[in-house]
Amino acid sequence: MRLTDESQRLARFEWQGEVLHGRLITTDGDDVLEVLAADPLRSAAEPTGRRLPLDDVRLLAPVTPGKIVAVGRNYADHIAELSLDTPTAPRLFFKPPSAVVGPGEAIRYPAQSREVHYEAELAVVIGRTARGITAEQALEYVFGYTCANDVTARDIQREDGQPSWAKAFDTFCPLGPWITTNLDPTKLDVRCEVNGTERQSAGTDTMLHPVASLLAYITAAVTLEPGDVLLTGTPAGVGPVVPGDEVAVYISGIGSLVNPVAGR
């Protein structure tokens, strides 16, 4: 499918045991998925003519990344709440693809942790191979954006002083509900609710390092491939969740990513 200049919502989903890709459209007031012939990230995936009601499918993580690059300490208010130093350059780490789950899937407490935190974030999905790009070029390499929860075992992070292991556990990277194209990543609102109570709220215009600058910085050293994901940091308001809680990440222009928290 050839992407247009209009914003589109592109989903990956399961229907009757089959994994499909589709474009979300509204017909007569109902949300339906227009099934595509292939993954639009990988090929020119034209509509097949099939349409499925959104309520009849199970949404999956909208992308299966080869790698996930994440930035920490990218909002000043979050740095302040954790009493950390402000880095002069982006503070980067990697999350493994095995951490990814989709909408509605459980975030599971690992046996090694007693304090798991939510972190609502804007996720950037790469659409073209990017190496050595400038900030002025960077958004041309973006396929679209989705919601993310950079789940963190905070007690482990405090013990070892670095984020990678504390953020790497299975189920610690919910993504979804779909990829929205053609958004301005500097003008989005990021919110998080736990059990219906708001815990985080900020605009992406308050990032210390905006998306374009992050992509230029990363690709000076690391090649990003189609389907790779960049997590852009979380604002203030992070805190613990326990089994039985429900975490919802909302981003304007995209939608909501909701995940329950389960025990070990």
TrEMBL record:
Coiled coil: none annotated. GO terms for molecular function: isomerase activity. Keywords: Isomerase, Metal-binding. InterPro entries: Fumarylacetoacetase-like_C, Fumarylacetoacetase_C_sf, Rv2993c-like_N. Pfam families: FAA_hydrolase (PF01557), Rv2993c-like_N (PF10370). Residues 67-261 form the Fumarylacetoacetase-like C-terminal domain. Residues 9-62 form the Rv2993c-like N-terminal domain. PANTHER family: ACYLPYRUVASE, ACYLPYRUVASE FAHD1, MITOCHONDRIAL. This is 2-hydroxyhepta-2,4-diene-1,7-dioate isomerase.
